[in-house]
Amino acid sequence: PRTVPEVAEVRDIQLPGAAGPMRARIYNPTPNASAPQPALIYIHGGGWCLSSVESHDSVCRALAHQANIVVLSLDYRLAPEHVFPAGLEDCYAATQWISKHVNELNLDPARLAMGEQTALEACLSLADDVECWLVQCHTVPCQQLNPTFHAGGDSAGGNLTAATLLLTHERKGAPIAFQLLLYPAVHTLASNQSRQQFAEGFALDKTLSNWMFQSYVGSSNKTALTDPLVSPLLAKDLSFMPPAFVLTASHDPLRDEGKAYAERLQQEGVQCLYKCYEGMLHGFLNHTYLLPLDVGQQAISDCARHLKDALHTASGKL
Fold first, then answer.
1. Counting CB atoms within 10 angstroms of each CB, which of 98, 240, 299, 316 has the fewest?
2. Which pTM was predicted?
3. Is 282 a catalytic residue?
4. Cα angle vertex 86, ends 222, 152, to 5°?
5. Element (H, E) at 251
6. Which one is catalytic: 90, 108, 154, 252?
């Protein structure tokens, strides 16, 4: 296994969620910085039901280290105990709180981003060990196993990132400068080629996806099926969104909707870069430091580079 990058300061704090205190973990590579720092608000994946700041610790450390930014990872409420929009409201409340407390956190309010990561960590927690994932990887023929806050997340976290940005626009909240979307779930009712082609045997299978979605929206919520806050790709207008980097995996059921979302952003004039990583399954970034995934390391480096380009320059351009 690779060594997970060291970060000078890693600490947990409590901040106000929508219904009470929630945990956030801060990764700060330069805790004694004299000037306000750029930051990424990170929303973990896990199908809205599983995972935590612990499961995505290595990715957050890597992004903080390589991009030289502060990363704030959020522990929002999970389904099925807390159905939609509980987790989303937590993410929105935390994002707005962070934007209002930049002075005490020594953050630059003009350089805040959002980002997310994947649900595969959740899949692995359902499996007994990582051997299951290794077997699935060997079925993939293309790849051998050798004003400006920023927001980001993966899979369901990508969904919550995009939905938080929609909610921020709707409520005229504090703006975000950049979004990092890692294999995002942005159209929960999609019936496209990748969802059909990789419905079984590729880590995030159809049965698990359906269970997670039903757990998130609840059995009685019929309006959620067409709500853009559940499926951001259904939003009528995305032209106000911040610049983005959208990452997908070639053997992921969510590949096509992630690509479609990137294309929507581009069509509506939003600066957006898109990259699909060949031979990879959903959630591959989480295993960059556990398995010899050179592609995972390259993907993290790409994310860090785009974050640096967006957050360490005055223009925020990619």
1. 240
2. 0.88
3. yes
4. 105
5. strand 244-251
6. 252
